[in-house]
């Protein structure tokens, strides 16, 4: 059944967690071989995470970065889904605006960040909008493909049975688009984490990127890695706690997911 | 017993590009009659069924279901060549997707009626090909239409399963008194199920034969069916 956790799936998850332990072990071994202050061991880094948390720096910075990423993610997803759906549905509009999306996809993130910082100053608004402008085209492209791939046979079925508009959206269209939305969400999130951090280094009043920028000025690898580890822990928790569950719930009907 | 719908198809013209597919094609199906439209693959049978089902309104002429154009007539039960189920919905969910106001108990009963006693919570991926086709038939019946349109419903399945489904369709149609338009390229389907067989051929498509089958469906044995198939085969070849 779709909702149950099969032994096979449990085994896969176990293997995935083991791979993280393996990575930490590899890191420990390399650090013991290198024996250099610029390559601290995971144990040292975890102690630094603890110290930074106790000093009251880590969690406020994480919260700041995560709130920026969350705001940018929501706006980018909504904008991307709307734009992509319209372009996928109407070929003429895709012809007219398709190149805009292409430009949006390929314009360097740093250019967008600097431009918005110059236009709007080093503000929260500028940072979030810069991330959205970088991310929304990616979502648009995924959604455009999703709308183009909608099963014509199912559209005919809905037509012949005169299924109401909302019933079509709910039962026929959204389930077909969900794989594209989830793919866009996953790739988009990984992109947003990175962009937000870079933009925070460029100019902000706090956050993981801002703090890493400060550590960089002192070549403090312990601090840089401590923030990176903490941030990665959040990302992994989000992956397993939110994305995987959502994916299983929404796409559980697909044979590969069950 | 419910009475089926009356169907009149009077197609003046239907073209694909420069080519006229239909150029004056007319037939009527009285209420409660099962009519098979047979003809070679690609002749335009499915297109005709799509026009009657309201999927393709791009033609000149009249299609009247109980004196109403398809868009205004009651929703027909339509079985496509492929089961065309929503893979994310359960068997019962597939019925509810096209008929949201269907009571769960009614949906379950429809599934039982097509031989799916314990499949309501299974998704299409968990059903065999035959079971999927049964769900598609139950879905067509869920809309409680008096007109059932069947587009090659027994194609691409093994003979045993096809025979089972034909028996199922026959029992449902006899019980409900539906008007049925069955599109098929296989004379056997027509010989087993139809009260009347219309043979289509040519371009533009024309009716080359319109044959009433005298022996009632329930009374036909293997010899009757073989004789009808033989006659239809000859008609298709002429």
The CATH superfamily label of chain A reads MetI-like
Number of domains of chain A: 1
**Number of DSSP-assigned strands of chain B:** 10
Oligomer: heterodimer
The Rg value of chain A, from CA coordinates, equals 22 Å
Radius of gyration of chain B: 17 Å
Order of helices and strands of chain B: EEEEHEEHHHEHEHEEH
Outline the low-pLDDT stretches of chain A. Answer: none
Largest sheet of chain A: none
Share of β-strand residues of chain A: under 5%
CATH class of chain A: Mainly Alpha
Mean pLDDT of chain A: 90
Largest sheet of chain B: 6 strands, mixed
* SS element count, helices of chain A: 10
Q: Write down how many β-strands of chain A occur, each being a DSSP E stretch of 2 or more residues.
A: 0
Please write out the topology.
The complex is a heterodimer of chains A (258) and B (238).
Chain A: H1 7-34, H2 42-54, H3 58-89, H4 91-106, H5 109-120, H6 124-148, H7 152-160, H8 165-202, H9 208-217, H10 221-251
Helix pairs in contact in A: 2-10, 3-4, 3-6, 3-8, 3-9, 4-6, 5-6, 5-8, 6-8, 8-9, 8-10, 9-10
Chain B: E1 7-16, E2 19-22, E3 25-29, E4 34-38, H1 45-52, E5 60-65, E6 77-79, H2 91-98, H3 104-113, H4 129-142, E7 147-151, H5 159-176, E8 179-184, H6 187-193, E9 196-201, E10 206-212, H7 222-237
Parallel strand pairs in B: 4-8, 4-9, 6-7, 7-8
Antiparallel strand pairs in B: 1-2, 1-3, 1-5, 9-10
Helix pairs in contact in B: 2-3, 2-4, 3-4, 4-5, 6-7
Folded structure, characterized:
The complex is a heterodimer of chains A (258) and B (238). Chain A is an all-alpha fold and 258 residues long. Chain A is 83% helix and 0% strand. Chain A has ten helices and no strands. Chain A has helices at 7-34, 42-54, 58-89, 91-106, 109-120, 124-148, 152-160, 165-202, 208-217, 221-251. The longest helix of chain A is centred in the last third of the chain and has 38 residues, at 165-202. Chain A starts with 6 loop residues before the first helix and ends in a 7-residue tail after the last helix. With 238 residues, chain B is α/β, with parallel strands linked by helices. Chain B has two domains: 7-76 and 145-237, 3-Layer(aba) Sandwich (Rossmann fold); 85-144. Chain B has a six-stranded mixed sheet, sandwiched between helices. In chain B, strands 1, 2, 3 and 5 form a four-stranded antiparallel sheet that branches. In chain B, a hairpin with a 4-residue loop joins strand 9 and strand 10. Chain B is globular, with a radius of gyration of 17 Å. Chain B starts with 6 loop residues before the first strand and ends with a helix.
């Amino acid at each position: 059944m779709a909702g149950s956790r099969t032994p096979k799936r449990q085994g896969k998850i176990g293997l995935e967690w083991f791979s993280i332990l393996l990575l930490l072990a590899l890191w420990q071994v390399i650090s013991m071989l290198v024996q250099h202050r610029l390559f601290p061991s995971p144990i040292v880094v975890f102690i630094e995470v603890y110290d930074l948390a106790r000093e009251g720096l880590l969690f406020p910075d994480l919260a700041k970065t995560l709130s920026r990423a969350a705001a940018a993610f929501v706006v980018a997803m909504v904008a991307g889904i709307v734009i992509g759906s319209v372009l996928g549905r109407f070929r003429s509009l895709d012809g007219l605006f398709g190149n805009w999306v292409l430009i949006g996809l390929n314009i360097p993130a740093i250019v967008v960040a600097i431009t918005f910082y110059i236009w709007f100053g080093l503000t929260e608004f500028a940072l979030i909008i810069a991330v959205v402008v970088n991310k929304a085209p990616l979502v648009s492209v995924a959604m455009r493909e999703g709308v183009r791939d909608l099963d014509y046979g199912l559209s005919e079925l809905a037509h012949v049975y005169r299924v109401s508009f909302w019933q079509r959206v709910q039962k026929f269209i959204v389930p077909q688009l969900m794989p594209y939305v989830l793919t866009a969400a996953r790739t988009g999130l990984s992109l947003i984490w990175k962009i937000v951090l870079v933009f925070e280094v460029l100019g902000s009043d706090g956050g993981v990127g801002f703090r890493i920028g400060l550590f960089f000025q002192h070549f403090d690898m312990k601090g840089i890695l401590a923030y990176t580890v903490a941030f990665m822990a959040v990302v992994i928790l989000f992956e397993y706690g939110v994305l995987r569950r959502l994916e299983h719930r929404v796409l559980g009907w697909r044979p590969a997911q069950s | 017993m419910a009475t089926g719908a009356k169907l009149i198809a009077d197609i003046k013209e239907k073209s694909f590009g420069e080519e006229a597919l239909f150029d004056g094609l007319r037939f009527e199906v009285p209420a409660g009659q099962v009519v098979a439209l047979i003809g070679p693959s690609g002749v335009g049978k499915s297109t005709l069924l799509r026009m009657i089902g309201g999927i393709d309104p791009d033609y000149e002429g009249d299609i009247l279901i109980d004196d109403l154009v398809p868009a205004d007539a009651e929703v027909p039960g339509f079985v496509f060549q492929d089961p065309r189920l929503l893979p994310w919905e359960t068997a019962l969910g597939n019925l509810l997707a096209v008929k949201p106001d269907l009571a769960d108990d009614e949906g379950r009963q429809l599934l039982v009626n097509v031989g799916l006693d314990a499949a309501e919570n299974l998704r299409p991926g968990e059903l065999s090909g035959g079971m999927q086709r049964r769900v598609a038939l139950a879905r067509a019946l869920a809309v409680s239409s008096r007109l059932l349109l069947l587009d090659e419903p027994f194609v691409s399945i093994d003979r045993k399963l096809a025979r089972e489904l034909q028996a199922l369709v026959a029992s449902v149609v006899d019980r409900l008194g539906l008007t049925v338009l069955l599109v098929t390229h296989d004379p056997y389907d027509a010989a087993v199920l139809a009260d009347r067989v219309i043979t289509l051929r040519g371009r533009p498509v024309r009716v080359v034969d319109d044959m009433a089958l005298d022996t009632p469906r329930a009374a036909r044995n293997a010899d009757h069916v073989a004789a009808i198939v033989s006659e239809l085969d000859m008609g298709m070849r002429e």
